[in-house]
UniProtKB/TrEMBL annotation, chains A, B:
Pathway: Cofactor biosynthesis; thiamine diphosphate biosynthesis. GO terms for biological process: thiamine biosynthetic process; thiamine diphosphate biosynthetic process. Catalyzes the synthesis of the hydroxymethylpyrimidine phosphate (HMP-P) moiety of thiamine from aminoimidazole ribotide (AIR) in a radical S-adenosyl-L-methionine (SAM)-dependent reaction. This is Phosphomethylpyrimidine synthase. Zn(2+) binds at residues 269, 333. GO terms for molecular function: 4 iron, 4 sulfur cluster binding; phosphomethylpyrimidine synthase activity; zinc ion binding. The gene is thiC. The lineage of its organism: Bacteria, Bacillati, Bacillota, Clostridia, Eubacteriales. It comes from Desulfosporosinus fructosivorans.
Amino acid sequence: MLMSTQMEQARNGIITAAMKTVAGKEGLTAEEIRLRVAAGSIVIPSNHNHTSLSPEGVGLGLRTKINVNLGISPECANLDSELAKVRMALDMKAEAIMDLSNYGKTAEFRHKLISMSPAMIGSVPMYDALGYLDKKLEEITPREFLDVVEQHARDGVDFVTIHAGINRETAQHFRKTSRVTNIVSRGGSLLYAWMELTGHENPFYEYFDDLLDICVKYDVTLSLGDACRPGSIADATDGAQISELIVMGELTQRAWKRNVQVMIEGPGHVPLQEVVTNVQLAKKLCHGAPFYILGPLVTDVAPGYDHITSAIGGALAASAGADFLCYVTPGEHLRLPTLDDVREGIVAVKIAAHSGDIAKGVPGAAEWDMKMSQARQALDWEKMFSLALDREKPERYRKESAPEHQDSCTMCGEMCSMRLMNRIMD
Amino acid sequence: MLMSTQMEQARNGIITAAMKTVAGKEGLTAEEIRLRVAAGSIVIPSNHNHTSLSPEGVGLGLRTKINVNLGISPECANLDSELAKVRMALDMKAEAIMDLSNYGKTAEFRHKLISMSPAMIGSVPMYDALGYLDKKLEEITPREFLDVVEQHARDGVDFVTIHAGINRETAQHFRKTSRVTNIVSRGGSLLYAWMELTGHENPFYEYFDDLLDICVKYDVTLSLGDACRPGSIADATDGAQISELIVMGELTQRAWKRNVQVMIEGPGHVPLQEVVTNVQLAKKLCHGAPFYILGPLVTDVAPGYDHITSAIGGALAASAGADFLCYVTPGEHLRLPTLDDVREGIVAVKIAAHSGDIAKGVPGAAEWDMKMSQARQALDWEKMFSLALDREKPERYRKESAPEHQDSCTMCGEMCSMRLMNRIMD
């Protein structure tokens, strides 16, 4: 039996099991989910071959989702250390994991990851292409690039990042902008290099219909990557970036005609005053497709703390309508993240997503804060820990610093305003 | 000779040494600074008796400043550990330190702090009152409260937080709002308790002119504290908070008539979508006086990570016109901050301040990012470290993870887009 995509079924009036699951998780009706999947404003990345998946929706009116990047590479070809990150991401309830493996036993890692993950799995097939094909970049043919995508799709990847928007025209705009940091997307820079070395059009743009065939077959969601995402705040919202976004919008409509689900990837490094503009532009130029962003980092000057610079941008972006946030760890710009870096990155992006959800009025978001504040007012420490976004750290902090009065903490002690007010207002 | 305040001199057309210093630091003319000090939109907290001070301006068009809270208390009466925090704050270029000491040798600590600090020093005399006067709260007289303020002023404190806005009328509004977290300001809750226990009006409101006498004498800047700042996002922007803000606006004009410099203190816990509103309300209701905020924390659910929740709110607030950010450490709501907590809090608030400065177009702000991105593009690691907001952590991260190629890092290694693009574009 040929299975069809979530989008095709939605458009045919069919409510799928995945739509029901998503509706249950979001507190919406399955019909509301179906309508938005049909319109393209929600995606449910769910490859037919990812049988362990617990589907999540990404898009309009839904809780902001988060993604954790990991994968094996020449710098860390150790499967176990990357699998430890997978387990941590799953324990911390990340809705998505992107496998950025680019070296070594990538297929083995991918198979393990997919079979163990209820979280949706994304990949960047371009990263895997060089190692998988074992060829020089310029010798890879368009067909071979597509073969790698199909291999990932067959393995059960739920969404693939494809930098199809950096075509020859976008590349022209890029060359005219004289950027501070050129192209900082890895996949994007590889494609640009391939185009320069071969003189040919971007294979994913030229053979976009063949790419859609693969997406239709497995119901792989297309995550249109932004090769020209700014790598410095000076490069944000420039001609290169926005011209690529226009092409991505056109490709979105072509994909939708084939009932292929689409997400749009966004920057990057963006100064605070341009974050909302970027979300609006992406949503507008790409016809309301779900917006997935990396960061954005609102300043370039804080290496070692880019989980914070990106939490600022991510919270603001989510509040303005971004649907899906990719975590950034303290290791960004410096090193492959350690397990601790991964943990810190996940906490920071969850804070950003939740702050955005409160602002955009996602049902249930502010209620969580209400419960925490009621527990705080009642000086109910156990309840505060159980409601904490991350339980381990606050519990440890309190243990390390034993208060004189069990109901207060060492910050204010005797002078605790909560205690005093509770006494005065009795 | 009786020395007058910065504001009085500004209004008399006099450019003081402090105005010249501030102008030099900000890249503005001394006349621009004078005009704004005269109008009240800039303050230069600089007590005549704080001789080690290197004056800073706080307010319209200036770089956003940051404050570090510390001080001795029953939970940490050890002067040395608090002095270590002072040294760290000074090393990390905090423009202000607030001494929240409330127990033990507070006078000794304050004297040491002031004599060693080029940073401006603030205090909350109310915290010190109980220990200093060694009396039950309800037995303290209005005159005694003022005596403590005068003691701090005589010692050289540059600005004092005074919760004068929570008068009987504000207290009525507070009682009608049925808040989740009542009054969470320590000084505010003590004053509210005093009012409830004695039946009298807030002494700082009733004897505001006497308070101004002290401020005039030493040129102490009045930082009007917000007793009704929300302690949970549910309580933000409510009748209690805004009615107090209206009173603070009226007191601001009374202070300005006496040539006393004024700052307005703000919340607290505020959901992201109300942060800009809060800044606008404070600026409007308080006639453009500089706005000094604690946080705001955009969610209540992340104890252990409130340096991040407040960096989100602080960055957005600064971008909207907040002039002065108080740091929040990971220990907030949990314990007195350790030295490490202080360090993390300072870095986070500096990120917030700088991100806001880029957004509000403070001269020179974005240029820092430009230099960093140029260094990144050139793969010049030494330059990146020297430009980093905090140098220690990125340098340590890189050392801990030695890359194969000295020009790249272990995050992307061979696949570094910067390296690839530099090669392709040559």
